[in-house]
Amino acid sequence: MDLEWMGMRLLVVVAAFLAVASAASLSLEDMEFYAWKMKYGKTYRSVEEESQRKQIWLSNRKMVLVHNMMADQGIKSYRLGMTYFADMSNEEYRQVMFHGCLGSMNNTKARGGATFFRLKDAIVLPNSVDWRDEGYVTGVKNQWMCGSCWAFSATGALEGQTFRKTGKLVSLSEQQLVDCSGSYGNQGCNGGLMDQAFHYVEDNGGLDTEESYPYESTDGQCRFNPNTVGATCTGYVDIASGDESALQEAVATVGPISVAIDAGHLSFQFYISGIYNEPGCSSSDLDHGVLAVGYGSLNGEDYWIIKNSWSALWGEKGYIRMSRNKNNQCGIATAASYPLV
Questions:
Q1: 308 has catalytic annotation
Q2: For an engineered disulfide with 256, which of 57, 160, 174, 316 has Cβ 3.0 to 4.6 Å away?
Q3: Which of 198, 282, 195, 280 is nearest to 242 (CA)?
Q4: Structural domain boundaries of the chain?
Q5: Of the residues 101, 149, 281, 330, which is catalytic?
Q6: Could you report the per-residue pLDDT of 301-331, keeping only the tens digit for each?
Q7: Is 90 one of the catalytic residues?
Q8: pLDDT category, 28, cuts 50, 70, 90?
Q9: Fold designation for 90-340
């Protein structure tokens, strides 16, 4: 009888423990979700919408935890986290962030820039380059929910080349490119191309400063002011498509380079640190414009240093290290170019 009573008591204690543990787990998830909302300023239109978003968030949280367990064991070379996009499915993320971001990148006419001429084979390139350390790169910006990645990539390259020529680092206006370069094939928040942006700046006689023509993350009327130009452009150069060695040489000898990549995977959506290695990446189906500001190697793994335009809260303070010399992974060298100033 005593044994039966003790057994029943043990079952009650175990059940109570499991209930408390379950409640504690849910409470922890609730607190994490609340903290995440506060961090990114997330609000929802209704209780029902928040409940739906939370379920997506919880599902993504499990995926992130599993991935990071593999990273802890050395199976993955990068870590994931609950980014701004954590309440979105991957399909939603791609629709929101890449709805035409690179316009007709994947079915456009032949590229129209000058050809990048390689230096002699005997040249020895440095093992690592980081133009941030040399003053070529402005702070990380945020395109918000506007498909203007192409404009941020273009201004980043032009900012670097202007600094190289003048010694002055001036933040340039993405909004002017969004508002004013439509006749060159760009479509503002619905996408565009970096080369078309360079062509516009060349013909227009310059690009205004960010201060004089600030970013609004929406399409607007063109209000270019020739009195507040921060940079001019005399043309642009296209680097041989798919040639990572040529891209490395350009980054090492020219400065930050505009590049297009495939950024549509869950792994990119939730990236927070490490060397990004996504074998499933496409080298031709490109959806995002970014800026290559350097390269390096870590423990035998080569990488590119890429500046994104999703604020400093994403990735490594707004940057991502992407695999280098892995057969043009994610199309990093497929459509690389830079402006002439």
A1: yes
A2: 160
A3: 282
A4: 2-77, 90-340
A5: 149
A6: 999 999 999 999 999 999 999 999 999 999 9
A7: no
A8: confident
A9: Cathepsin B; Chain A (3.90.70)
